[in-house]
């Protein structure tokens, strides 16, 4: 296993370069974005005059009120940004006094229903109260910090489409950065991580915690098949089987060099990590590929959702590692950088 040590060192250095750091934050904002603590308070008297990511005026005021409600509960910047993302998706950051066909009684920034869970009509129409109730519900979701942003929001809102909030993650990060002065790095629409200061003790906030060496599990679920011969032919990767539509994460920092249909694989995503190391992710349905060729990703960034497309008998992620163009067993590679899939 000694030959794998340079790979681990390579990703430590690469992760340090790509994740960057936070500086120049307002006095009330921590430079750490760890899942607990480290939130930012917004000065309502110093909001941007210009539009940010297409949001302006009362929308930025409402985003600031959402941020401050999260800060009052001790949430991190990650949690606060999930709140802003959700309000963007539900109401466009406007206090709506109307619902829709799915929820005609829905009201406010978060389109909260009149079912007793979200308080009175006045509560649902008040940005601070409605945001506080959203964040309290988020805090009751076991392990919400380890979910992708859209999955965390869905656990509270129960939207018909669990991936509905994905397109709002990047704009939410831009708004949060503009409101707080904290340079938040927003990543792909797959629900990426917030970059944090190395001094703050965090490298990123992905869907699963980062182990040493800046690698992470590509999916969270049982290991159902290993590398080697299977059914009389080579099985060039490992299979991890979380529920259908569960997040698939980039195992390490790199550049997406391939996405799309591939015989037997259904859809295949290929990420080049440099130094001759490539990872591949398979069996996603077309709509569940959440990244594009040329995109830079960090470890733990969601790039897809688990499917059963191609030569597959059930929902799972088929995960491969190549070194120098040759397939290699992913388990010892992951073990060498501190990741246990089982």
Automatic annotation (TrEMBL):
GO molecular function: metalloendopeptidase activity
Domain M23ase beta-sheet core: 234-330
Name of the molecule in the record: M23 family metallopeptidase
Biological source species: Modestobacter muralis
